Amino acid sequence: MESEPAAVDVRNLSKRYGGTLAVDDVSLRVATGEIFGVLGTNGAGKTTTVEIIAGLRRPDSGHVRVLGLDPRRERAKVRQVLGVQLQQAHLHHALTVAELIDLYVSFYPNPRPARELLDLVGLTSQRTTRFEKLSGGQQQRLSIALALAGRPRVAILDELTTGLDPRARRKVWATVEQLRDENVTVLLVTHAMEEVERLCDRVALLDAGRIIALDTPAGLVARAGAANLDEAFVALSGKELEESA
């Protein structure tokens, strides 16, 4: 991957909250069209790292570039190429699916057509349904559609299947796989091993704000001498991941 152009380039990133070092000298490069997993327990620094990459938080030190752009100094340009779906995103519950998509589409000069977004995430039949009436899986798929409204070349997806049943998870995963087919670069923040094995080309394991390993899922298993990715994570970090509720 080092010889390929980097869609996301992070070097020596650090962020402290009071006495807690949330992100500790993190460096990674994500190639164009790659699905790159950021895996770790709750509190490992995953969300803080991607929020800094998205320009939503200021790092204490380090270098971040998204398609060669500085997320802090070139925010307007970054917003045109980066789509973000964060775990803590809040949407207006009284608006319908179509109204929310139309709202987000209006933010961009060359947006993806609303009908195309609905079809991409399989919500055409729910276009007149209010957000509050959607199932958890449908809400997650809608959040992906909103992140893709501006035709981003890079997408950040944070814990997108937390709390979903197996059927809903598979539908969301199919949407992410379609992004790969469209050569969209994806940063996938998760603590779900099955998700990593199904989707990710490479994965960074975070623990206490540091990257403790970075490889393909199969490479991590081989490096740890483990039978599967769950065992590899335990061997490399000394911790176990909690399953999503």
TrEMBL record:
A GO cellular-component term linked to this record: plasma membrane
CDD domains the UniProt entry points to: ABC_DR_subfamily_A (cd03230)
Domain of life: Bacteria
Residue span, ABC transporter domain: 8-233
Protein name: ABC transporter ATP-binding protein
Classification via InterPro entries: AAA+_ATPase, ABC_transporter-like_ATP-bd, ABC_transporter-like_CS, ABC_transporter_ATP-binding, P-loop_NTPase
Gene Ontology terms describing biological process: response to antibiotic
Entry keywords, A to Z: Antibiotic resistance, ATP-binding, Cell membrane, Membrane, Nucleotide-binding, Translocase, Transport
Predominant location category: membrane
Membrane topology designation: Peripheral membrane protein
Keyword flag Transport: yes
Annotated GO MF terms: ATP binding; ATP hydrolysis activity
